[in-house]
Amino acid sequence: MRRLLILTVSFLSFYNLNAQQIIKGIVTDSRGDAVIGANIYIKDTYIGTSTDGLGKFQLEINNSDKNILIISFLGFENFEKEINIDILNQELKIKLKESTDNINAVIITAGAFDASDEKKSITMRPLDIVTTASGEGDIYGALNTMPGTQKVGEKGGLFVRGGEGYETKTYMDGMLVQKPYSSSMPDDPSRGRFSPFLFNGTIFSTGGYSAEYGQALSSVLILKTKALADEDETEITLMSVGASASHTKRWKNTSLSFIADYSNLSPYFKLIEQDIDWLKSPESYGGNLIFRQKVNKRGMIKTFGSFNQSESHLLYPNYEVGENQLIKLFNDNGYMNTVYTDMLSSKLKMKMGFAYNSNIDDIDINENNVKTKEHAGQSVLNFKYFFNDDYALKFGTEIYNFNYNQDYFDFNSDEVFNTNFENTIYSSFAETELKLSSKFAGRIGSRFEYSSLSKKYNISPRISLAVKTGKFSQLSFAYGIFYQAVQNDYVKFNNDLNSEKATHYIANYQLFKKDRTFRIEAYYKDYKDLIKYQVLNLPVKDSYNNSGYGYSKGFDIFWRDRKTFNLIDYRVSYSFLDTERDYLNYQNAAVPTFSSKHNFAFVYKHWITKLTTYLGLTYSYSSGRTYYNPNNSVFLDDITKDYHDLSFNASYLTTVFGNSTIIHFSVSNLLGIENVYGYRYSSQMNDDMIFEAHPVKPGAKRFAVLVFMLSIK
Amino acid sequence: MKNLVLVLVLAVSLSSVYAQNSSYEDIMKKNIDLLYKASDMSDYQKVANTFEIVANKETANWLPLYYIALTKIYMSYSAKDSDKKDLYLDEAQKFLDKALALNSNESELIVLQGFLHQARISIAPVSRGQKYSGLANSYFDKAEKINSENPRIYYLKGMNVLNMPKMFGGGKENALPLFQKAKEKFDKFEVSNELYPNWGSQGNEKRLNYCQN
To answer: CA-nearest residue of chain B to A653?
Structure first.
């Protein structure tokens, strides 16, 4: 009996050897770790198996003729091999190659906070923006809690790494937005023109950005608008400072939205006493139109249009001039862009875009009037060719035309002084994006720009590299030269001025693991060809030149944690900045008035399920800023006291007649600290033979806003 | 005794030969069974692998693709790491897109699209709740227009309501009628063939009990 058993068993195995053959082996990743659960099968058959807990597999096949073995697993490239006699008689050792679109693949992070992907920890999506206390629902306000930025309370906007506000440019779907901020009165901070809800992603780069972007010395903010709207929707928003309404209609391949908004600060200013003598509180109305059309399978046309008009009057105590001035500001702004993206073939991506900006600032100062008209048109044609998954070439060309026309009416002489210029910037760029392995990526490119006004050209090389140092960590480096055309206030008098120039050197280390991010970035930025002049607004060409220069260096630290505490999301930013520059009418190189050495922000968000409420708390700190004191013979030697702010907001989610509703409340400066942004001095000495100081402060200690948002589907 | 051993050895080797040569129906049937019994990630992974092998051969058939997507959605629920959860759903979406390209009017596929959107919510309820529960519902409504007898529509709709905060019209009381309706439909539901989707009845029963207590 035993014999029979042995005989049968051996017969069975003999049978197997003949009719069936066995492929066995072990599957690992590039590190040699077992890949568990990989799919092993023979092409065009049902024969297959999965690797076990050790990455091992064994597969029986009937016939080895021309069979192809395929091994596949999520995050790896497929492995294919024709089965021949050689591989049947040994244990195969198969190393799968990580596919480069794997989530852990190396990406270039130097300089950029890419927040288009909600899975990534550094996000600034709409909800993130509005729930950031101290942001006051403004994109730029919320970004001001990110490392590398600087609080400049009397101006608003983004001041990045020792750069002026104008050095940050805003792009919407790759098209330049000429005037992303509202026009504002002196010492009253401007806000972003666009609602954070228009965008589903932001990339905020604090340096070293791609050659695709020109005309920004320090920073670019890249806003990505939503594709097709999800569904039909009507939204009504009521605020303590205004109201807005929108309607969205979705068809199969098309969506269209209209938004109308109105704001008026007068009721609020009547309730909360202001330090500013508003004769007419800021009032504005505007509208947006958003059109989306899907064309064929992968093509998309996006059109965005907006217009806005605003008006305000105030009595401004101009100490420098020594009188109270009646200032009336009227602003009229229009912006539209259309972007068409498509895949021309499976390897060639195209983007074609047009943008048009128009802005009129009409300002009365007592009986005088300044009317500034700006028009800008931009057309862009970009291509990206994918040679394979690891290598792509991006190239494109752009024409940007800018028209400036200013009439200054002088009451005393009853004369109108006109300044105007037109500049066309022709540019083109080429950039390669390559991945040498899943551990090493690079981006090398260059941008060429020619200005029709100054008849000069610039070449800006840009290089970024990233190396993966561990499963969750990586090092990145970036270098680049950046040019930006001189600001209108100076070009209008001197058309020959060179572009201002900045050179960036950046090193970055990032650790990203399961909803926790740590990031440290060190940088050095060298400024050249900054504008210098003796007296502002002197209509003499030679009084403006490019002899200004400066530097800024420092490091930024960022930590975000959404994991440790349940339903709590907090982030910490710290920036150290060491900067000096000699520009404008500076007497010598000095720390500019808009920069502080230390900036710190702690942003805390807590979702309370029981109350369906999002609570937000932000603490911001900036060390003192320099200011000009005519009583001190040393230039910019005085420093303001430190800035502190503790802001709070709460968003209560509920339903009203079955429609989802958000009730939002936010208030700044809970502790009621008297913040001072700087000082202005009287032009005449007083009886004690000193120039008297007048602090520049916010209009009121606190700002509070109540919002009711109803969305009907 | 020894005879028994012999029979067993024979049976085992025969069954493995049988499995590897089995037809589309057999392999699908067996694997669907395994899917409903699966309890951990490695079970799911094996099941998904087998469905993928079938899908690679049966390129004009939406069912294997449907089951891969369904398995990956289950995997997303079972995964611990939120990045992985999304990754499985991204994968599921790829296969579902392929299936929808083959048969865009199949109510089961449209229900599955709703289920997939629903699965996104649990990864980040606060930021995603509003968007994805709306999306999920719009697909359930669409599926209902095509086949109002599909019980999974009401079961998943019920889940959507159950998991929503009370403030938004969620909670047990509001979910109960949906689970009851699903039960009616489950009781009447007959599949046209064995491989056709037929899951959710037990889960619905469980939720029904939960909501009634």
So the answer is: B167
